[in-house]
Every structure is written in C-alpha cells, then in structure tokens.
Amino acid sequence: MALLKEISSSVEDTYNIAKDFAKNLKINDVVSFFGNLGAGKTTFIKGLLEGLNYTSSEVNSPTFTYLNIYDTKINIFHFDVYRLKNSNNFLDMGFDEYFSMDGICLIEWADIIEDILPKKRYNITINHISDKKREISIEKNI
Length: 142
Ligand SMILES: Nc1ncnc2c1ncn2[C@@H]1O[C@H](COP(=O)(O)OP(=O)(O)OP(=O)(O)O)[C@@H](O)[C@H]1O
Ligand SMILES: [Mg+2]
Description:
binds magnesium ion; Rossmann fold; 7-stranded mixed β-sheet; alpha/beta
C-alpha cells in the first residue's frame, strides 16, 4: 500500500518527511531502505531518529560494523548491509534475530537481503533527481 510519494527539495524537507513518518512506528516494525549511494537513506534515518527525540549527531551509517543500536524509548537497530554479498552473510551473523527483538529495524541497502526480509514491513525508496531534489516513496507491505 502506497503511503506517500513526495519530492524533497532539501535535507530539511527529508528530515521533516522522516519525522512525520516516525510517528507511525511501533515496536517490531521493520523499515527497509532502497536507493543508490548518496540518495539520502542515512539522512532520512537521522530525521527519523530526531522524530524519536534522539540526537541525530550520533546517527551514522554503520559501515564498518553493519549495525548501530540507538537507545531511544524503543531500541533502534540501524543496519547498513552494503558490504554484504547476500542474505546468507546476514543470516550467518545471526542478524535476522533482530527482526523479532523488541525494537525497530532500519535497513539500508535492503535489496541485498530482500529474500529474507519479513513480509510485513515498510519500504522506503529514495531516488536522486538532482543536486538537492529527491523523490521519496513510502509503502507498507502487510
Ligand atoms: N533533499 C535531500 N534529501 C536528502 N539528502 C540530500 C538532499 N539534498 C542533498 N542531500 C545530500 O545527499 C547526501 C545523502 O547522503 P546519505 O549519507 O544520506 O545517503 P545514503 O543513501 O545513506 O548513502 P550510502 O548508500 O552511502 O549510505 C548528503 O550529503 C545530503 O546532504
Ligand atoms: Mg547511508
């Protein structure tokens, strides 16, 4: 189900869209992010965390660790699986256990592990339009 399709014209716009979206999130939700390098996945996640009253300066792509955990009212598990080859690598590290832990999973480069993502999830796709413009689509899969 499509929830939103909007053009963001600035980082501020993206933060605001993300903050609004954050209000929907509940424990055990999984949010997968699609979009090329520099599309704005991490930027969106910073806005989302700000919406959960978390200081976004601590939010960065967990490039060397795969996973960052932010201690908000609800635990946030922030994955960046860019450097994984496929979903087997993800399973080998036992990361799929996080899908059923008490918290919310945010996954950058979700297409790499799409075959093992829970069916019930949000998909957020960010397309680069120009220097400052991004098309942001949010859908909910049940
Ligand atoms: N409207 C916009 N929304 C989001 N980011 C924007 C926008 N306009 C410009 N930018 C810039 O685009 C870059 C987005 O980087 P970001 O790290 O969020 O991308 P990413 O999708 O997480 O990339 P990666 O795949 O490397 O993790 C930032 O430098 C940001 O300032
Ligand atoms: Mg990123």
